[in-house]
Write a structure and sequence with these properties.
A: mainly alpha; 28 helices; B: about 525 residues; mainly alpha; two-stranded antiparallel sheet; 2 strands
Chain lengths: ~725, ~525
């Protein structure tokens, strides 16, 4: 089969799995996961084949695999959509296929496939646990299978479809389609346990917050399409004429070129999707969904898509930027990315929920990638996107395994604690060794533990890029964020796995099933090894031993290469210090925690409360945006404008009509028209009454009248004719 | 057979009337017979529309602006004729009407009282609506325009819910009030040109240099007055903000099928009037007042969305969503109006895209609004309330209904992959270069579209289950699924592959404007 056909099949298979499950297998648990796994597995195979073929091709960035058809006929032309694999989409496809497949396999175990049905299961709520009686007559409380098992696999298949579509497409419109379908899937999956009040709020928050970014992005799409007549990557991003034209055309915003305006609009889309400040608020709440969903959103799909967009459009975003005079999009990316990296890292310090720490860490790491683009470190951003996807998927799945173990303990002991609170954990390394070692690999990668972890290589490159660009503020901000990252990661590892158990449940936790632990092992391999393909040549001692394949392959996407910069050892030194320093500090601070209490809570005081409450951003938004918006809708639009003003005018017109009718009736109809009529009527009636009085029935009266009448007639005749 | 083929449009137009006449003779207590007869009869125009569709040559041209044309003498004294025909703009609307009518009748099987008169009115309503889309004569257009009102008035006033008399009266008086100016303007044009024939008017009215009737006003003034008479009549029907307040009342009080047709087809009559009459007959005036029209369209988008978000009555919320969605049609038309006499290739393309978007949005809104109203009705039939605060967590009880509702709601929200997105994207794309500010402001409305759709889903389906419904609600029946499935299939088909419809619209629009 031609490679283009294979590319078509990659997104199509999970979509078919989705429809098959919805239509035919929505009550069959086993069939539903086989369909989903089949779809994801086939896509994985095809992705690997395509990836393999792609890396064989010499100048893939200039001659990508591509196929297109006309989708929207407009006027005498039309808008084409199609598929394309170039170096950037090839490497993205690689990590998406791997993480998606691992998450799918993990989900089978996570949702307790093979366990009995729960005793009091209610659709829309997490499985409640089942009571079983063993052969000795003892009853146990054990985890029960997810009541909406098939629905879960249908939805993540759709999710995978959307991400694959976004990756293999060749134009911004189809990207937007995949982007939005992912928004729907995250909405439905964050609210998977829709019966919970918190879940139904989180699902709406996620959808609407990202939608803020999406509507701006749609304008960017419209603008780009209007100006260039196409949305195809190759014809815009690989075309210096178009890029320079956009950079020189002035937009309605004073002083900003069209390239700048479109760039900013697209970046706002990314800010929403990749949860950057100030639209970051939805991501931590997205923890309401099942853990595989968190891994899906945080690593494989959703947030990666946001960063993928800005990496993809970097040629447009950076056009007109010669490395000195900052353009608006570059400035925005640098500022937003660096600020978010630090901002989210500080919040992560004071979170006790194992998944929330990871959520803020995701926000922070995505800030890293965007800041990397803000300093022109294009390849480093793509590199960190990939390594982060592996180790963050690993960490989330690992945390899910931990939560599962804890839940088991909670079910066993009947203790009333939150199984996600790290303060009640401790000592889990002995109970859950595979989870521990893989989590350690992921955690060290996140911290940028030198040399052996993938995270080190990608983060180091970002720091080196920031340093080389001369934007020292960004450099030091990112360095500080890296220090905090290592610190809170070690805090997490120490609190969860080291020391001694701080609750009954933690003592009774046990290792998860193979379906959950095998994916962890696979992902931990990539969390370590994925960095080796991008070891810079200038690196002391080991640089150049392994060729920097990643730089060469993905770097070929750019038409204009930044000039070779002088490589200083300061950034390398900094990244070593922050990683090791942060890890040691974290260990020293948290190694001796015996009670479920954070030792930093007292000394930090008000600052800790501020961090714990995430700087009160949610409360601020509630006050400044949401409440006024509700007031605008409910009071201004509905009550005042529609019901009072517009309907008031209408009703006034109606009343005026009725009043006019009444007036006419009173002053014209009644006296004039009716008056005249009535006069006729009463006159006739009176005359009749008079005549009736004559009809007495007596012959004498008739005779008298007749005589009188005859006399009158006689007199008349006499006077008229005889006399006259 | 030839005779049938040559009179297809008349057959489509009058089969419902004929069926209604036959129904007069049927016994009124046999409700099953009445329903099935009405349903079967309404399938005939649909089938005939498919025949027309198959025989339609999408490549419009000077020689063939309209197809399946029929022309006969009607009021020869005032030179009004019975003139029918379809092009790529009206044919999708005809399809929408003949598709939605059987579905609405099928949805009305739950009507228990006075089935006979209900079904007869419904069939008459179909003729009224189809006549507007098919007419190529202004007077004929007006006659059908008014004919459609009468059955709708009775449907709301007789089979509506609590506040039906107020709503029915508001609906009929408002629309008729708007039509007065339209009638006068039509008379004026007919006398001035000496014909009511649309094709003739297209040629002569815009280029008219002197007026035969002595009014004491200059010709541009007369034309501007006529233009506004048209605009107000159609704006009320669309409805364009601030002429919209009849809509929430009428839609909310109407029976389910009535709301489906109101939102699905009747609103399109107004937008169709803009496309068929206002833009071609008043090019200068349209261009002059395009900005005002865009402003009103954007106001409809924003205030429609905000109004919807504020509602706690499920049906009223959906009613407001129509204002929001039809605002995009108006925005597209306004953008095209501004570019009506452009000659630059870029401008031509923008105009074309905006109009493609507007016409497609009409069709798409017909599908999604009818679907949403139907689904509200399904819930109302069971729960006998529409108050969102009374629901909650129903997904657990009604899994099929919940899934169908989410699907339809997402089409209404404009989720890419479903139909609404394609047309909204085209409108935004077409309007952006001409009406940049208006388009940017429309994004506020687009955001709140999400807010109100999710509000409805949240309050109906999600959250803790309101226990009063436990064991009291049953999931969708086969008949109900039969009503919604064609709509869902079309929503998906148009979202994934819009070209089959867009191609027809595109050619017609490119030829006409």
């Amino acid at each position: 089969m031609a490679v283009e056909t294979l590319i078509v099949l990659i997104p199509l298979l999970p979509l078919l799995a989705f429809f098959a499950i919805v239509l035919f297998a929505h009550r069959k648990n086993s069939l539903s996961h086989w369909l989903a796994l089949g779809g994801a597995g086939m896509s994985w195979v095809l992705s690997m084949v395509v990836f393999w073929q792609a890396i064989q091709i010499e100048d893939l960035s200039q001659h990508p695999f591509a196929v297109a058809i006309q989708w929207l006929p407009t006027g005498s032309t039309g808008l084409n959509i199609g598929l394309q694999i170039d170096p950037l989409s090839a490497v993205t496809l690689f990590f998406v296929a791997w993480t998606v497949l691992m998450i799918f396999i993990y989900s089978v175990g996570y949702h307790n496939f093979g366990q009995p049905r729960g005793d009091h299961d209610r659709p829309g709520l997490p499985p409640h646990g089942a009571t079983i009686t063993d052969q000795h007559g003892h009853t146990h409380r054990v985890p029960s299978i997810e009541p909406m098992y098939a629905r879960f696999f249908a939805l993540i298949s759709l999710f995978a479809f959307a991400m694959f579509l976004l990756v293999v497409t060749d134009n911004l419109l189809t990207l937007y389609i995949g982007w939005e379908i992912m928004g729907l899937c995250s909405y439905l999956l964050i609210g998977f346990w829709y019966g919970k009040e918190s879940a139904r709020n989180a699902m709406i928050k996620a959808f609407l917050t990202t939608r803020v970014g999406d509507v701006f992005m749609l304008l960017g799409l419209a603008a780009l399409y209007s100006l260039t007549g196409t949305l195809n990557y190759q014809s815009i991003l690989n075309n210096p004429t178009v890029l320079n034209g956009l950079a020189q055309a002035a937009s309605p915003l004073g002083g900003v070129s069209w390239a700048g305006l479109i760039g900013v609009l697209l970046i706002i889309g990314t800010i929403g999707k990749s949860a950057q400040f100030p639209l970051h608020i939805w991501l931590p709440d997205a923890m309401e969904g099942p853990t595989p969903v968190s891994a899906m959103i945080h690593a494989a799909t959703m947030v990666s898509a946001g960063v993928y967009l800005v990496i993809r459009f970097f040629p447009l975003l950076s056009v007109g930027w010669d490395g000195h005079q900052l353009t608006l999009p570059v400035l925005v990316m640098g500022a937003v990315g660096a600020f978010t990296a630090l901002f989210a890292a500080t919040i992560a310090l004071a979170q006790n929920d194992i998944k929330r720490v990871l959520a803020y860490s995701t926000i922070s790491q995505l800030g890293y990638m965007i800041a990397a683009l803000g300093v022109g470190a294009y390849v480093a951003a793509a590199f960190h996107l990939i390594t982060h996807a592996f180790f963050k998927a690993l960490l989330f799945l690992g945390s899910g395994s931990v939560i599962h173990g804890m839940e088991h303990g909670v079910l066993h002991t009947g203790e009333n604690i939150d199984p996600q609170n790290m303060l009640y954990m401790g000592g889990l390394r002995r109970k859950m060794p595979i989870t521990f070692w893989t989590f350690l690999a992921g955690g060290l990668a996140l911290s940028g533990f030198p040399l052996v972890t993938a995270g080190f290589w990608s983060k180091d490159e970002i720091l080196a890029g920031a340093y080389a660009s001369g934007q020292m503020l960004i450099f030091w901000t990112l360095a500080l964020a890296a220090l905090l990252t290592a610190f809170y990661t070690m805090r997490q590892i120490t609190l969860t796995f080291l020391g001694n158990p701080r609750s009954q449940s933690a003592e009774h936790a046990h290792e998860s099933r193979p379906a959950m632990t095998y994916p962890l092992v696979v992902l931990s391999f990539f969390a370590i090894a994925a960095g080796w393909v991008g070891i810079p040549d200038y690196f002391p001692l080991i640089g150049g031993i392994v060729p920097n394949w990643f730089e060469e392959f993905v770097g070929s996407m750019l038409l204009f290469h930044a000039e070779e910069t002088h490589h200083s050892l300061l950034p390398l030194f900094t990244s070593l210090v922050v990683a090791l320093g942060g890890l040691s500090l974290g260990w020293l601070t948290y190694r001796a925690v015996r009670q479920p209490l954070d030792p930093l809570e007292k000394p930090l005081g008000g600052l800790y409360t501020l961090l714990k409450n995430k700087y009160y951003v949610d409360e601020f938004y509630q006050l400044v945006f949401i409440r006024p918006a509700r007031w605008l809708a409910e009071t201004v639009t509905d009550r005042w404008l529609d019901r009072t003003v517009i309907d008031g005018i209408l009703h006034s017109i109606a009343r005026l009509g009725i009043w006019l009718g009444n007036v006419l009736r009173k002053w014209f109809d009644l006296p004039v028209v009716n008056g005249a009529g009535d006069l006729t009527a009463t006159g006739t009636r009176n005359f009749g009454a008079f005549l009736r009085s004559l009809q007495t029935g007596r012959v004498q009266v008739y005779a008298t009248i007749g005589l009188g009448a005859a006399a009158m007639v006689a007199i008349l005749i006499y006077f008229l004719w005889v006399v006259g | 057979m030839d005779w049938i083929y040559n009179h297809l449009l008349s057959l489509i137009l009058f089969t419902p009337t004929a069926a209604a006449l036959v129904m007069l003779l049927l016994p009124k207590e046999k409700t099953a017979l009445l329903r099935n007869f009405a349903f079967a009869a309404s399938l005939i125009p649909f089938a005939l529309t498919l025949v027309v569709w198959a025989g339609f040559n999408p490549q419009a041209g000077q020689a063939l602006p309209f197809q399946f044309v029929e022309k006969a003498n009607w009021y020869s004294a005032i030179r009004a004729s019975y003139h029918l025909g379809v092009d790529g703009i009206s044919l999708p609307m005809v399809l929408l009407t003949t598709l939605l009518t059987p579905l609405a009748i099928l949805a009305s099987y739950s009507i228990q009282e006075r089935v006979k008169s209900y079904m007869i009115l419904f069939l008459l309503l179909e003729t009224g609506m189809l006549g507007v889309f098919l007419a190529l004569d202004l007077l004929l257009f007006f006659v059908f325009w008014e004919v459609g009102l009468v059955p709708m008035y009775f449907l709301i006033a007789q089979w509506g819910s609590k506040n039906r008399n107020y709503a029915a009266l508001k609906f009929v008086l408002y629309t008729m009030g708007g039509s007065l100016g339209l009638l006068l303007a039509i008379q004026l044009m007919g006398v001035a040109v000496g014909s009511f024939d649309l094709l003739e008017l297209y040629q002569r009215w815009p280029t008219l240099t002197e007026l035969k009737i002595p009014l004491g006003l200059s010709l541009p003034t007369v034309k501007a007055i006529a233009f506004w008479a048209f605009v107000v009549a159609f704006a009320i029907k669309v409805p364009v903000w601030p002429f919209h307040t009849w809509l929430p009342d009428a839609h909310t009080e109407a029976p389910t099928a009535g709301s489906m047709i109101l939102a699905g087809v009747l609103l399109k009559l107004g937008a169709y009037g803009f496309l068929r009459l206002v833009l071609p007959l008043f090019p200068t005036e349209s261009q002059m007042y395009a900005g005002a029209l865009a402003f009103l369209g954007v106001a409809a988008i924003i205030f429609g969305a905000l109004g919807a978000w504020a509602q706690n009555d499920f049906k009223r919320l959906i009613a407001y969503s129509s204002i929001n969605h039809m605002g995009f049609v108006v925005l597209g038309i306004a953008a095209a109006a501004a570019l009506l006499e452009t000659t630059s290739p870029a401008g031509m393309l923008d105009k074309n895209i905006a109009l493609n978007g507007a016409v497609l949005q009409m069709f798409n809104h017909g599908l999604s609004a009818a679907g949403m109203f139907f689904l509200v009705g399904v819930l109302y039939d069971r729960a006998h309330t529409r108050d969102l605060n009374d629901f909650g967590g129903l997904y657990a009880l009604l899994p099929v209904y919940g899934t169908v509702l989410i699907f339809t709601a997402m089409a209404s929200l404009g989720l890419p992959g479903l139909n609404g997105f394609v047309s909204e994207f085209l409108v935004v794309r077409g309007a952006w270069p001409v009406m940049t500010l208006a388009t940017a402001l429309a994004m506020i409305g687009l955001f709140f579209t999400g807010a109100y759709i999710l509000k409805a889903l949240k309050m109906v389906l999600h959250g803790p289950l309101n226990t009063r419904w436990k064991d009291h609600l049953s999931d969708m029946t086969g008949r109900e699924l039969l009503v919604i499935s064609p709509l869902m299939i079309l929503m998906l088909a148009l979202g994934v592959w819009p070209a089959w419809l867009l191609d027809m619209i595109n050619r017609a629009v490119a030829f006409l404007f």
